[in-house]
Write a structure and sequence with these properties.
- It is globular, with a radius of gyration of 22 Å.
- The mean pLDDT is 88.
- It is built from 15 helices and no strands.
- 26% of the residues are buried.
- It is mostly helical and 294 residues long.
- Helices cover 72% and strands 0% of the residues.
- α14 packs antiparallel against α15.
Length: 294
C-alpha cells in the first residue's frame, strides 16, 4: 500500500509540475537563446504529456509531428521509446471506442517496418504480440495485400513457440476475403497459451460459422466464448467487457435471424451503436441490414 501511495504521489507531482510550467515562455527562451537540444526537450515534454493524458489528441499529434521532424537526431532506443508512446496513446483511444485511430496505428506499424525500428532491426525475432497486432490492424483498415505480404515476410521471424500464428493470421485474412471455410480450416490445428489469441479465434469462428449459416455451431461457439472469458484470469476487464457485449449482441442477432421483428431489430441496432466497448461493430451492423422481412 505504501508503494502504491508513493507511486501515486510521484505521478501527481510530475503532473502538477508540467501543468504549472509556463510552456510558451520556455519555448521562447529555448528559441531566443538557441539552447542545444532544446527541440529534444520539447519532444520529451510532449511525450510526458501523452503519458499523463493519453486522451488528448492535441498532445498526440504534436508529439508525432515533433518525432517525424527530429527522428534523424534520435538514437535507436529513443526512437523505439517514442514510437511506443505513440502506439500506447492510439491503442488507449481505440479501446475507448475511437475507431478512427486504427488508421493512425496502422501508419505507426508501417513506419516501424519501413524504418527498421525496434523488432524490425537486424532481422530480429518478432514477438507474437507484435505480429498479431500488426496483422489485425492492417485487416481492420482494409489493407489485405499489405497484411498478406507481412504474414509471408515475417512468419520466419516468429520464434518456434509462435510459428502457428502465421496460420492464425491467414485465417483472418481468408475471412476478410470471404473465404469462410478456409478461415475455419486455418484455425483447426492451432493450440496456444495466449489468452488474447484464444479470444481472437472465438470472434473469428463465430462470425465465420454465422456467414456460412451454421447456426448450431454459432450457438456452440458463443457458449464456449462465454466460458473462456470467465475462465481466463489474464484477460483485461476491457477485453472481457467487449467480449461479453459481442456475445450478447450476436445472441440477439441470431434470435432475430430466426424470428425477424422490425421493432426489436431497431432496438438492437441502437444498442450496438451506443456501446463503445463493442468488438466488430461494423460486422454486427452489416448482419442486421442483411435480415429480410416477408
Amino acid at each position: 500500500k505504501q508503494n502504491t501511495l508513493n507511486t501515486n504521489m510521484e505521478k501527481e507531482f510530475v503532473k502538477e509540475f508540467f501543468e504549472d510550467l509556463d510552456f510558451k515562455k520556455l519555448i521562447l527562451f529555448l528559441d531566443k537563446n538557441k539552447i542545444e537540444y532544446g527541440d529534444i526537450f520539447i519532444l520529451y515534454y510532449y511525450r510526458m504529456l501523452c503519458m499523463l493524458d493519453p486522451g488528448s489528441s492535441e498532445n498526440y499529434f504534436k508529439l508525432k509531428e515533433l518525432f517525424l521532424k527530429l527522428m534523424t537526431k534520435l538514437k535507436d532506443v529513443e526512437i523505439s521509446q517514442i514510437i511506443g508512446t505513440l502506439e500506447f496513446v492510439v491503442t488507449y483511444k481505440i479501446n475507448r471506442g475511437q475507431r478512427e485511430f486504427y488508421s493512425e496505428l496502422f501508419g505507426l506499424f508501417d513506419m516501424e517496418i519501413k524504418n527498421r525500428i525496434g523488432q524490425y532491426s537486424n532481422n530480429n525475432n518478432v514477438t507474437a504480440f507484435k505480429f498479431r497486432n500488426t496483422v489485425m490492424v492492417a485487416l481492420r483498415v482494409g489493407e489485405l495485400d499489405w497484411a498478406n505480404n507481412y504474414i509471408n515476410k515475417y512468419r520466419k521471424n516468429l520464434n518456434d513457440e509462435s510459428k502457428e500464428l502465421a496460420e492464425y493470421a491467414m485465417g483472418f485474412l481468408h475471412f476478410e476475403k470471404g473465404e469462410y471455410e478456409k478461415s475455419i480450416d486455418a484455425l483447426k490445428n492451432i493450440k496456444t497459451d495466449y489468452s488474447v489469441i484464444k479470444v481472437d479465434m472465438k470472434y473469428l469462428l463465430i462470425k465465420a460459422f454465422y456467414e456460412l449459416g451454421y447456426d448450431d455451431s454459432v450457438i456452440s461457439q458463443l457458449n464456449s466464448f462465454r466460458y473462456l472469458i470467465g475462465s481466463q484470469k489474464q484477460l483485461t476487464e476491457i477485453t472481457k467487457e467487449k467480449g461479453l457485449n459481442f456475445i450478447n449482441l450476436t445472441t440477439n442477432l441470431l434470435k432475430l435471424k430466426f424470428e425477424p421483428n422490425k421493432d426489436k431489430l431497431s432496438v438492437l441496432l441502437q444498442k450496438i451503436n451506443s456501446l463503445n466497448l463493442t468488438s466488430d461493430k461494423e460486422w454486427l451492423n452489416q448482419k442486421i441490414t442483411d435480415i429480410h422481412f416477408d
